[in-house]
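Minutes, structural biology subgroup

Action item carried over from last meeting: produce the structure token record for RNA pseudouridylate synthase (Corynebacterium jeikeium). EB confirmed the sequence was re-checked against the source entry. Recorded below for completeness.
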Amino acid sequence: MLSGCVPDDGRTYLAAAAGDSPYEPGTLLAPGLVLSGRTPTWVYPDFPEEPAELLEADIPVLYSGSDAVVVDKPHGLPSTPNGRLLRATAQSLMRVRLQEPELVAAHRLDRDTRGLLVLARNPVTRGFLQTQFQRREVSKTYQALAADIPEIGSQWQEAQLPMLKIKDDPQVKVVDGERSRLTVTRIRKLASRAGMGVTPSEDTHAGTPTAVYELQPLTGYTHQLRVLMNHLGAPIYGDDTYPEYRPGAGALRLRAVAIELALVASTKNRQRVVIARCLEAPWSQWGSKRP
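Output recorded by EB:
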């Protein structure tokens, strides 16, 4: 709502729809225009510049069907717009690149996590995809890089851990209680090696035996995999929240590498989408070759 005169602040003001407004909806209100009274207006807010490296991020398409697109979201790129980033998100960028303004992320993948993200492309069948995630009908597999845990072997093990998310606390706590939720995760070790974690520049892991783990969350809880690995004494490399909260401390070595769900609404057949090189050569994605 404006009164007096239209500000000359570099922004564009348009008349909004109102029964008593002397202007047609959408009329441009020029800077300095004297208004006869309180006038409903629309204004385009100022948005800060967004990081060029995110706007130019490579987002490979691994699956494209009539109802969905599955992409490999890079680390650091949000899945959907938030308060700080609107264009530099996987959803926004793929809408532009594929020229499909109706694309919507069917689920959430943390900004720090790299990997498979499902985008619904058909508004009519969007709910079909989203409901599978809401009902926990989707199978997900992740890989993580962390210090070697001798007790974890090549066979699947099931880990149950009570977790509690406290408001305004960046860390999820491992604690028993009525408010806690029991989380369940399958974990196994894919490969291990002695020496540096990933590259010589990561001197914090120099000399530390390192392993690639595969994890499958059977429940869905905030930071579930990160909390589990920290609880096991091997926080995921690059984690800026566990064991200590250090925002922006590094690139989280966690990647969603396989997902299984029904991608076509007209059939109940489930399809498995994978990042093949991760499953075939677990060291390849971390910039390190198996010795």
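Discussion: Residues 143 and 282 are 8 Å apart (CA to CA).
Next step: EB to file the record with the rest of the batch.
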